[in-house]
Structures are given as structure tokens and as C-alpha cells.
Write a structure and sequence with these properties.
The protein is mainly α. 61% of the residues lie in helices and 7% in strands.
Length: 151
């Protein structure tokens, strides 16, 4: 243990000590992280075996599950919006690269929809092969358009 600029350094973890909190806790300066959690706390879903002392302090809340659902859905909607805008621009302007990029984003929309289905609707099923296939086909369409369909 060595002191440097108001921090106590133990092992690989550096902890900032606030004097007001230490006085409120009744001298919590000697308290280690492994002593700070209650062994009766339920383990979280993040690598609980690798970091048992730290991991039990950060549990997965229902609110964060809702945020994950919102993010997955927004990614799918963003990919669908990109596909729509690119294909609409192709039909107005006629540039073929817009067509291939629009088809690529349509495939990425399918990929994101499969991700939503995999993680939210059917969490027990593994749709990773289908998701990877959709992403691969989308990228192959874009690569084909970039290489062989030049104007």
C-alpha cells in the first residue's frame, strides 16, 4: 500500500477516498472491496466468477434491461430508415451505388430484426447463425455493387 496525491493504491485497484464519506462511515478507510459486499447478495450476470467482489455490487436492474431493448429496437429502425432513404434516392436519381447500398442496409435491417428476436422475443433460442448469415449477405451485396457494377 502506498499513498500518492490523496489516493490509496492497493493491488491493481485505485480508490479515491472522500473524507466526508470516511467520517460518515465511521472510519471506512480500512475497508476493502471484498468486505464491502454482503455474501447474500445475488450475483449479477456479468462474469461473476472472474470478479466476485466487484460484480456483486453492480447488479443488472430492470431499468437497464429496458434501455437495452430500446437500443436494439432503435438500431433496427435506424437501419430501416437508412435503407428507405437510400432506395428512395436511387429511384429519384438513378445512381446504382445507392441501390446496392440500400439493399445492403435492407439486409442489415433484417440482421437487426433478428437480433431483436434473438435477444428479446426468443431468448432461449440461438439465432446467431441466421443473424450472421443476414449480415454476410448484406455485405456481399454491397461489395458486389462496389466492385462489379461501376459506372
Amino acid at each position: 500500500m502506498r499513498r500518492r496525491f490523496g489516493r490509496i493504491r492497493r493491488d491493481l485497484l485505485s480508490i479515491q477516498i472522500d473524507r466526508r464519506e470516511a467520517a460518515f462511515d465511521g472510519g471506512a478507510r480500512g475497508l476493502r472491496l471484498s468486505e464491502a459486499f454482503d455474501p447474500g447478495d445475488p450475483p449479477c450476470s456479468f462474469e461473476a466468477a472472474a470478479y466476485p467482489g466487484i460484480c456483486r455490487r453492480f447488479s443488472l436492474q430492470e431499468g437497464s434491461r429496458m434501455i437495452v431493448n430500446i437500443i436494439y429496437t432503435m438500431c433496427a429502425l435506424t437501419a430501416a430508415l437508412c435503407a428507405t432513404l437510400l432506395l428512395r434516392a436511387y429511384f429519384v436519381g438513378g445512381y446504382r451505388l445507392l441501390f446496392w447500398a440500400g439493399l445492403c442496409f435492407a439486409g442489415l435491417t433484417v440482421n437487426n430484426l433478428l437480433l431483436v428476436m434473438d435477444k428479446l422475443v426468443f431468448p432461449d433460442m440461438d439465432l446467431s447463425v441466421w443473424r450472421t448469415t443476414a449480415a454476410l449477405l448484406a455485405m456481399l451485396v454491397l461489395i458486389y455493387g462496389l466492385i462489379w457494377d461501376s459506372e
